Amino acid sequence: MEPVDLVIRARYVITMSNPMIIEDGAVAIDNGLIKAVGRASEVLSRYRGEEVINRDRHVLMPGLIDAHTHTQQVLLRSFINDEKLALPPIWTKLLVPFEDLLTDDLAYLSSLVSVVAMAKNGVTYFIEAGAPKPRELIRAINEVGIRGVVTPSTFNVRGNEVVDAGEVVRRVEELLPEVSDRVRVWCSIRQIMMVTEDLLLRLKDLCLGRGLGITYHLGEYQGEVDHTLAKYGARPLEVFDRLGLTLIRPTVIAHAVYLSSRERAIVRDRGLGIAWCPTVDSLIMGQHWLPMFNDTLFGFGSDGGAFTGLDLLHEVKVARAVGKALTVSMTYDKSSFNSITMLRALTGWGGLLVGDSVGVINEGFKADLITLRLDDVRALPIYDPVESVISILNGHSINDVLVGGGFVVRDGKLIGVDEGELIEKLYDVIPEIHEKLNNIVR
Ligand SMILES: [Zn+2]
Predict the structure, then answer these.
(1) What are the structural domains of the chain?
(2) 199, 156 Cβ separation under 8 angstroms
(3) Whole-model pTM above 0.90?
């Protein structure tokens, strides 16, 4: 028998490969990578785990990928009511001014709260949209142990104020020595309306020159489209395409709700990814077109903890409901936009979305895995584990989270961080934050 670090046996293994579901399956893990997957009897007869764990009333599947989040906005949680949602627009009136007020300590606390919450909800990989204090986020990632794409909040135009593009690009370059097994560094763009053309070209050169991915907010509201039509004579993604930014891989475009058919063709033909944020897109932007087309690489985003519980298994249920509402009302097709597609979006299409070997339980892939508890009247009965994950289970179902074969959450308990201490710290700072928030909207 071949020795390996760990063997996990589970009632169901969802592989995201062929076969999709293995009943009474097992996964052998060695050196952070998946060594083998199959029926438990076969795997256990070939591999001797230094540790063997049984999850006989659980689903084992690849970890979830949050394709769009704002880790340093979580301290806004529950502050955004209907009135604030209607601010024109909420990001320039509340979100960005709030980020300006973050001290290093608050940015670190916010990052830690977000990363811990994501980990507990089964997220093993996330894409930050642009952190005002990226080093504080890197600290939190290294403590909790999930993987994160880090990028500094990137813009150089605000009102009449224009910052030198070189200075903004240097903020990304300075982070590159922090790249590790857990930390990736990408470029980002806050909004096409908040950047000069010079900055766009420099970001493109940096990404293509250093092999970095990019993520940006785009197609968020009509004012943005009108702005670029007036300034560049083209729609937002057409501008990016003309400037060569669409050559960057991976590219993850957040929201992209307002795309013309020509822009959708750019997304499809260039193989760009879209981060659909089902809750926030529905609340602020309206119905997403994604469920109508089967030709788009996409993932799900929470858009940060200010609006949501950072629970992608909740987001997928919102997506399923609003997606079906669209396909049923437009074409009376109830079977399109199916659960397997949604599961692929949750796990990143075998790593294509983030450009990494994750999201599939197959030999050679990184052992970023989660288990979900089925021993719960809120979950039972289970006939088809894929339908259970998409329709019934949520973040509270997460039992274990492994990244690179190591436990981040084990049997519901967080490993790297003392959660009780974190909660006490939050109670201490809430009054101070509340006062700051009231001053912004006053
Ligand atoms: Zn965002």
Answers:
(1) 2-62+359-411 (2.30.40.10), 64-347 (3.20.20.140)
(2) yes
(3) yes
**CA nearest 182: which of 417, 412, 371, 366?**
366
Q: Nearest to residue 345, comparing CAs of 411, 402, 390, 292?
A: 390
Which residues hold their Cβ within 5 A of ligand 1, which is an ion? 129, 303
Centroid of ligand 1 to alpha carbon of 433 (angstroms): 21
* Whether the Cβ atoms of residue 348 and residue 358 lie closer than 8 Å to each other: yes
* 18 Cα–ligand 1 center, Å: 34
Which residues, listed in sequence order, are joined to residue 369 by a DSSP beta bridge?
A: 62, 402
Report whether 358 contacts 65 (CB < 8 A).
yes
Calculate how far, in angstroms, residue 159's C-alpha sits from the geometric centre of ligand 1. 20
Say which amino acid occupies 293: F
Cβ-based burial of 88 (10 A; exposed 0-12, middle 13-18, buried ≥19): exposed
Return the amino acid letter for 389: V
Structure tokens at 118: 């994501």
H helices, E strands: number in the chain? 16, 19
- Give residue-wise pLDDT tens across range 222-255: 999 999 999 999 999 999 999 999 999 999 999 9
- The predicted-structure confidence for 275-307, as pLDDT tens digits, reads as follows 999 999 999 999 999 999 989 999 999 999 998
CA 258 from chain centre, in angstroms, equals 21
The alpha carbon of 408 and the centre of ligand 1 are apart by a number of angstroms equal to: 26
- Residues 180 and 139: beta-carbon distance below 8 Å: no
CA atoms within 13 A on the CB side of 277: 32
Within 10 A of 382 (CB to CB), how many other CB atoms are there? 16
